[in-house]
Structures are given as structure tokens and as C-alpha cells.
Design a protein that fits this description.
By secondary structure, the chain is mostly helical. The protein contains ten helices and two strands, in the order H-E-E-H-H-H-H-H-H-H-H-H. A two-stranded antiparallel ribbon has the order 1-2. It is elongated and about 75 Å long.
Length: 170
């Protein structure tokens, strides 16, 4: 009986999935391609959808692959966001990390929830950057001070955070 079912699926370009149900060949290829992409780096659901769609998979097979990867917890936006913050909390400002996560397709609610749960010390980051730039608080030249402010602002730090860190430095 089982051989007969497998033969029937082969004729229809189907294969038996992990749960025993018949799955079209394109779905299997999309799932495998998704797993292949995850070997190299973590992805958000949005990034995976884009990557699979770029490869020419149908919307149905892309959705099936994403659901498959979510079911086995290979795709988890919350976990991705937490790991991203842990990895970058010493080099990027909160504003920059939030922007990056939103660009990667993580929902605003999820981004806010992750940052509520995790602590990021922007003051320590700013002090580290000041050390790296050899900032001298005794420097009388306002142009150099303004240049440091602009550098930190481009990194995504707020004016208040920069001010408080510079006062702490002095």
C-alpha cells in the first residue's frame, strides 16, 4: 500500500512530507532553499520571503516554506531581534539598531518589546567612542567639539545622551 502511495506522488511531482502528507515538488525545493540560506546567517521572515521570491518560487511555495521554517523554529523574528541587539549593543545606538531591525522586516511592536526587555548602555558606548576619537574635554576649539557631536549624532545617539556622556567624561 505504501509503495503504491509513493508511486502515485512521484507521478504528480509530489513527495511525502515529514508529517506524511503529500507536498508538491516546488514546496520541497523552496523549503530546502530556505534551509540552505539559513546555513550562512540568520534571517527574518521578511528577508526569507524576499530571498525565496527572488529565486522565482511561487507565493504559495514561499508561504509554505516560511511556515515550515517557523514550525521548526528556524525562523523566529523575536529570537533574531534579541540576538541582533546582543551582538550590536556595544557598537550601535538604540536608534540605529531599531532602524536596522525595522529595515529587516521585524514589526515595530516586536522591536519595542525586545528593547523593553534588554538593557543597552548608550553612555558607555559614547564614552568608548570618545576614547577612540581621543576626545579631550579641555580642548578649547569649539569646531572640534562640534565635529565630535556630529560624529556621535550620525551614529544615532540623541543630543541628551551625548551631552550627559560628555559631562561624565569631564
Amino acid at each position: 500500500m505504501k509503495e503504491w502511495q509513493q508511486e502515485e506522488h512521484r507521478e504528480q511531482n509530489m513527495y511525502a512530507g515529514a508529517d506524511g502528507d503529500a507536498v508538491p515538488e516546488e514546496f520541497r525545493e523552496a523549503r530546502n532553499k530556505g534551509l540552505y540560506y539559513l546555513q550562512f546567517s540568520g534571517k527574518t521572515e521578511n528577508e526569507m520571503r524576499k530571498k525565496l521570491a527572488e529565486q522565482g518560487f511561487s507565493p504559495a511555495s514561499v508561504e509554505d516554506a516560511v511556515l515550515f521554517l517557523k514550525h521548526y523554529r528556524y525562523l523566529d523574528d523575536e529570537d533574531y531581534a534579541r540576538r541582533y541587539v546582543e551582538k550590536n549593543d556595544h557598537k550601535k545606538s538604540i536608534r540605529q539598531m531599531k532602524f536596522d531591525l525595522r529595515q529587516k522586516g521585524v514589526s515595530d511592536d516586536l522591536v519595542e518589546m525586545v528593547f523593553e526587555d534588554m538593557e543597552v548602555d548608550e553612555s558607555a558606548q559614547i564614552l568608548g567612542l570618545l576614547r577612540k576619537k581621543n576626545y579631550d574635554p579641555e580642548e578649547p576649539d569649539p569646531a572640534k567639539r562640534q565635529k565630535i557631536y556630529a560624529f556621535l549624532a550620525r551614529k544615532g545617539f540623541s543630543y541628551d545622551a551625548i551631552n550627559s556622556a560628555m559631562k561624565q567624561w569631564e
